[in-house]
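Deliverable D5.2: sample structural annotation.
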Amino acid sequence: MSYMPSHLLLCVSVFLFAFVYQGKAYDPLETFESIESLDRTIKDKSRDRSIPLRFYFPAGKKNSPVILFSHGLGGSRNGCSYLGKHWAGRGYVAVFMQHVGSDESVWKDAGPLRRMFALKKAASSKNFMLRVQDVSAVLDQLENLNQKSDLPLYGKLDLSRVGMSGHSFGALTTQAVSGEKIPLLASVTEPRIKAAIPLSPGSRKMISPDEAFGEVSVPWLLMTGTHDLLSIGGQTIDSRLAVFPALPKGNHYELVLNKAEHSVFNDKASLRDKLPRNPNHHRVILGLSTAFWDAYLRNDAEARSWLNGDSPRNIMEKQDRWQKK
């Protein structure tokens, strides 16, 4: 019987340990914090405007990075709860905004035949600007809530590390406040936002994608689907896919989920969906979004290595598309 020299045995042991450790060390799908939720409505006195909020946050944890979320047309702060709960379970404070005027109040009191008309009317430039202004107003109010010792959010928010995400109309809101150039409009970029994830992104007809997105300086992770269409807003598959190529090189990513419709980012399927839901899509959305936040809000080298390596493909399906630059 032959024996391995002790120094070689030690090297092999160290290698195996490192291999196993590396394989288990970072998992963006794992949650490790117990979470709480809180509903609160803030007031932007300068506009005499109320903004309902829902907070998901890790119980007992202080100085957590913050993620703002903007719902789609006709939505509310209650939507996409699977995202808020997972991010909070990873140690983030997720703040889900509700934009009055383009929220669920638009269609709830309208009869079935008038709902589509009401939604189309709400997808206006006026409501777009109200949404953009809501973002800065919420950030201002969060600074106040973080400093009041008698409130549940006291000391929980690290407002030097803020990310922003949103779906559909919320994606357009996210793009606008994180670096997109919009025609006939002064910059509305919110400098407190350090990274962004537009879900169902879009480009505009009045400006080329290169001009609109060529100077985005904060990291973006775009997510869409091969069947990501909506009858309101005029976006096509091509207009959604036009965003990523126009972004400059440097910490930008794009996920295209195979056979995913517009509602893939919502908690539940839409009655208008034509394709069956793939349960793995939410798993991919959660995994990639979490690794992205960890990499660019926490400056986690392990998360960045995971995101930039082959690991994302391990949770995707073969026909999902993934690229970075």
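Annotation notes: The radius of gyration is 21 Å. The chain has one domain: 32-324.
The annotation will be released with the project's public dataset once the embargo ends.
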